[in-house]
Design brief:
231 residues, alpha+beta, 7-stranded antiparallel sheet, 8 helices, 7 strands, 39% helix, globular
Length: 231
């Protein structure tokens, strides 16, 4: 069996989404990318998480050809491939329909940085994509979803801003591994929930100052970071 270690990591990431309450039924998927072989390991389409095994996962190449597995890959597999092709350094992608992050996506609104929890993880608002056109939806919808995301990040660094809200749809998160991407999905949902509560409590709430935002982001990220322990 190819990519055995990556299969186990992708399985654990998929199951973690359920444990963390980010996925119900089969509303989500996680994948991992092996740069050495150029292969993607992803959840099969529509398979319930409570019966999912590592051997069920599907392996495809970056063109979408199934190279190992007897089931269809996730219907979102073309979006995952588009992100791996468009974002060098990304080796894990997670898609959920978690309640609060999806609600912001359905509203077509980015998530502003209302506090330092958000600032610890994202250097700016969590971006939202433009509404997809009819032609994008009617032809190669899932691939075009990925292209819309990549286009939205033309002036952003994907590994600095590791999530997006697809307008009218739901969030996608990514990272240098699928484990990291799953962690980001949990963080994103918490931030989305806090942002919702913030504007519910005070409709005119404003983003925190740029200086406070930068302080919290860069104390965890970059050359001068001092949060946590030296690795």
């Amino acid at each position: 069996m190819m990519l055995a270690a990556l299969r186990e990591e992708v399985l654990e990431a998929n199951l973690a989404l359920v444990r963390r309450g980010l996925v119900v039924f089969t509303f989500g998927n996680a994948s991992g990318f092996d740069a050495a072989s150029g292969l993607v390991v992803i959840k099969p389409s529509g398979v319930p998480y409570d019966v999912l095994r590592a051997s069920d996962l599907v392996v495809t190449d970056l063109e979408g050809k199934v190279v190992e597995g007897s089931m269809r890959p996730s219907s979102d597999e073309p979006t995952h491939r588009a992100l791996y092709r468009g974002f060098p350094g990304v080796h894990g992608v997670v898609h959920t329909h978690s309640r609060y992050a999806t609600s912001w996506a359905q509203a077509g609104m980015e998530i502003p940085c209302y506090g330092t929890t958000h600032a610890d993880y994202f250097p700016g608002p969590v971006p939202v994509t433009p509404v997809m056109t009819a032609s994008e939806i009617e032809s190669e919808y899932e691939w075009n979803t990925g292209q819309v995301i990549v286009s939205r990040f033309r002036e952003l660094e994907p590994l600095r801003t590791p999530a997006v809200l697809v307008s009218g749809h739901a969030p996608f998160c990514w990272g240098s591994s699928v484990t990291e991407a799953a962690h980001t999905a949990e963080v994103l949902e918490e931030i989305a929930h806090m942002a919702y509560l913030t504007v519910t409590i005070r409709g005119g709430a404003e983003s925190i100052s740029e200086s406070l935002h930068r302080k919290h982001f860069f104390r965890k990220h970059g050359a001068g970071a001092y949060y946590g322990q030296v690795k």
